[in-house]
Specification:
The chain is an all-alpha fold. The protein is 70% helix and 2% strand. It has one domain: Serine Threonine Protein Phosphatase 5, Tetratricopeptide repeat.
Length: 233
């Protein structure tokens, strides 16, 4: 998933959670690490806008918005005076990491702080630093936040799977299946589990996906059919 795709806001949270289908298990290790966090990072932006920015005011909101502007800045020569630009991707990444780090440090227990941890996890994954990404995601999981903890579990499970730690990945996904949330549905967790089982146990993956192909939710059935098609190949 490239950075432009990561920033797109779509209305169907389920589609956001599983939009790349079986690409997760067929790419290179670093690409899988990036996907694991990036897929959720899109949701984080939406949640930040709708659940935080609209309901908060003051310094934390301003700091969050400033960090988001840096994260969303363009790379290259400035083309207008109203948007942020950086000369190189490296310069942009450095500024973004600094902004998110300051936000996480100052407001660690707040929703703004949890959003910062997500973005720091994403940047760590982009840099190939799985341990740092894992540490950041665990902070969000341990927060117990009803919105962000389940999403962090989803990303953490995918990150573990990218490292071959299928046992821990399955535990996290099973907990999401048993206790779904508003932003990580039972179906999304099932499809994510099918993703990680596909390379080693395609029959088990197919067994998980088959019941979802007839779902009344079009996004669910579409993703299940796409995953089954990829599995057949």
């Amino acid at each position: 998933m490239d950075r432009a795709t990561r920033k797109q806001l779509k209305s169907d949270n389920f589609a956001l959670e599983v939009q790349h289908g079986f690409e997760f298990v067929t790419g290179h290790r670093q690409a899988m690490m990036r996907w694991a966090v990036a897929a959720v990072a899109v949701i984080v932006v939406a949640v930040a806008i709708f659940l935080y920015v609209q309901h908060q005011s003051g310094v934390r909101q301003e700091a969050l918005q400033a960090a988001m502007r840096t994260e969303g800045a363009s790379v290259g020569p400035p083309t207008n005076e109203y948007a942020a630009f950086f000369p190189t991707q490296a310069a942009k990444d450095k500024a973004a990491v600094q902004a998110w780090t300051e936000l996480a440090t100052k407001y660690g227990g707040s929703e703004a702080g949890l959003i910062a941890q997500y973005y720091l996890a994403g940047h760590a994954a982009d840099a190939g630093n799985a341990k740092e990404s894992e540490k950041r995601l665990k902070v969000v999981v341990d927060s117990g936040n009803a919105n962000y903890a389940p999403m962090a579990k989803l990303s953490l499970a995918q990150l573990y799977a990218s490292e071959g730690n299928l046992s821990e990945a399955r535990k996290l996904l099973q907990s999401l299946i048993d206790h779904p949330s508003g932003l990580v549905s039972k179906e999304a967790a099932i499809i994510a589990l099918a993703h990680i089982l596909a390379p080693s146990d395609p029959q088990a993956a197919r067994k998980l996906l088959e019941p979802l192909r007839a779902s009344e939710r079009s996004a669910v059935s579409r993703q299940a059919l796409t995953a089954l098609s990829e599995l057949s190949r």
